[in-house]
Amino acid sequence: MKTSQIKIQTHNFRAINKADIIIDGITVVAGENGSGKSTMSKLLYYLYKTVSNYNNLISKDLEDKLRDVSRFLEIIAFERHSSKENELEEEQLIRDYYSLFQGNMLTEERMNKWVSVLDKVYRIFYSEDTQHRNIKSFTRLTRFKFILKDILDDNNISIESENTELQFQKIIDLVKSIFDDAFNKKKFRPSSLFIDELETVFGIVNLPEKFEVQEYGETIFSSDKDRLAIPYSIQNAIYIDTPMVIGSSSDNEYWEDLNELLRKKGKLNNSQISQLISKEIIKGDISIEDNDFSISDFFYKRADGSIYNLLDCATGIKSFGIIQLLLKNGSLTDKTLLIIDEPESHLHPQWIIEYARLIVLLNKEIGVKFFIPSHNPDMVSAIKSISEKEGILDEVNFYIAKTEEKEYQYDYIHLGTDIEPIFESFNIALDRINKYGI
Amino acid sequence: MKYCKNITEAHPFIMECSNSLIKIEKLLVNEGLKGANPFTDTEHLVVNMDHVETYFAKKEKRNERSSMDFSFGISSPSEKYVLAELRFNYKKITNISKVDLIHKVEGSITTLKGKVELNSEYLFIFQSNQKEQARSLFYRNLRMPKNYLVKDVTELKTDFFS
Predict the structure, then answer these.
(1) What pLDDT does A188 receive?
(2) Is A382 on the interface with B (CB under 8 A)?
(3) Which residues of A touch B126 (CB under 8 A)?
(4) Range A221-226, long-range pairs (CB < 8 A, 24+ positions)
(5) Which of A223, B11, B53, B119 could form a disulfide with B82 if both were Cys (CB 3.0 to 4.6 A apart)?
(6) What are the helix (H) ranges across A155-202?
(7) Searching chain B, which residue's CA lies closest to the CA of residue A382?
(8) Is A244 helix (H, G, I), strand (E, B) or coil?
(9) Which ipTM was obtained for this model?
(10) Could you read off the pLDDT of A150-170 as tens digits, one per residue?
């Protein structure tokens, strides 16, 4: 019996009653609106984003938690200019401040540096013997005290008096505990980081009754387990829910993630597939260049020499442009899970087929894995047909989401390579045309 | 619209080439039906239109026309013949040719013109695991006429032979 690369079990989560999904190569899911397809996309994206970038996320979390203390030190370093006699000391403090953000973020050495800088700041500004020459302004002192109190309040740390030394000691303890928490997370890989992500994304407290991901039979994540394992088959996940994302700003974290990735300046990889996009489909090339404000702009250079800002181009061009940019900057590898919600959106029928071909070739030639929710008969049919011709049909899995026992709750039925039930669902539209039309 | 044995077997045009009658159970198997045959152990006879075409082409001294696979009589709402085509052997359903199917319908209509009254809906019977894909292809991609109906053998039996 074949052991699948990735198996994902999701039970009782939003519209999903039961979804046991395999990702061996290309996984296509069909189902009516509201059946939980996008929920699945987001679950997968955030899981792999968390497990694959675990240390980066811990670092980011660490920086977020240190932000207020960092801002306090920045104010101290840059905003006091007390007197000429302290100039050298001030310059050293600025260097100390910058040194807090150098090197490996998750080390005891860095924690000790933070502690030592905080200690130094205290000694310079607040200890009895130096106060007279550094604190020239009573208002400044008041402001600093207020900031210290605010940081402690924000972290639910109460102190009996507003003793500055005690405040400083508490801040140092806080910094140490933030670092210790990060060290523990790095060491034990608790699943809470992923759970926190889910709660942020879905804005809910109720998480899936069951959510388990296995790689070659080994559990990577399970809602029953406390720790996250390290995945091998998928080491980065990319989520495209609309081609309109390119160059756009949004509160959506995954939009920002994708734009950051698109702006990545990797080594130029002009693969055959990238050339296929240029020559056979969009008749041009997508490029990225820094503008006067050092912000990267996306351009579409058409084969006839015309150059357009990609944001002003047809959405179909953007759809292929995103793939081409990801290819060029090396973001698509055999360890990539590319999640594309309804890739057929905004595409002319002939480009739907070209896009399906691209999906198949990216899987065949590079090994990119796909999770594709789709509503389109041509997309579904073309993925099957082209995969068969290219000899990768064994790695393709189709699913349909159906309500079985409970209304508004969907079970994901594994179809293997049989797309007939998907077409039965699509053909309800034909019945409606006959019902409402002539 | 239900199958009528008498009309199928007794029409003068059938009497003229009586060896054209064949059990539908057998015809379906001959044409490559896979999986369960809902007509197993039934006695329904239908007209093998290839035989009919060959017979009349010889009689009328002309080339054989493209034709539908089989035909059968119905008694209500009026006595008519239904034309049906079996499409069982598609490895790729997208290989369906609109022109070929229209030629088959037109060929059989021309052959039977003046001999029998034909039902205005033409049946195209697919393997059950391809019916919905064929339906999608017929109406979305090929824009086939609406009186070209896609069915599988189960529906054929339910709609006409039950």
Answers:
(1) 86
(2) no
(3) none
(4) A221/A47, A221/A51, A221/A191, A221/A194, A223/A191, A225/A191, A226/A188, A226/A190, A226/A191
(5) B119
(6) 164-188, 192-202
(7) B94
(8) helix
(9) 0.81
(10) 888 877 777 666 677 788 888
Distance in Å, alpha carbon of A415 to nearest chain B alpha carbon: 12
A51 touches B at CB < 8 Å:
no
Query: Which of A381, A420, A423 shows the shortest C-beta gap to B94?
Result: A381
Whether A417 and chain B come into contact, CB under 8 Å, resolves to no
Backbone angles phi, psi at A318, to 5 degrees: -65, -40
Residues near B103 by beta carbon (within 8 Å), at least 6 away in sequence: B65, B66
Q: Token pair for residue B130?
A: 């391809």
pLDDT tens-digit readout, B57-91: 999 999 999 999 999 999 888 899 999 999 998 88
Report the distance separating Cα A19 and Cα A36, nearest Å. Answer: 10
**What's the rounded Cα separation, in Å, for the pair A124 and A93?**
10
Token reading at A45: 């994206």
- The whole-number pLDDT of residue A52 equals 83
CA–CA separation, B109 and B105 (whole Å):
6
CB–CB of B136 and A426 under 8 A? yes
- Please give the pLDDT value at position B83: 97
* Domain span at B130: 5-161
Q: Which residue in A has a C-alpha nearest to residue B143's C-alpha?
A: A430
Judged by CB atoms closer than 8 Å, whether chains meet at B129 and A420 is answered as yes
CB pairs under 8 A between A and B: 33
Tally of structural domains, chain B: 1
Selecting from A378, A385, A418 the residue whose C-beta is nearest the C-beta of B129 gives: A418
Write out pLDDT tens, residues A223-268. Answer: 888 888 888 999 999 999 999 988 887 778 889 999 989 988 766 6
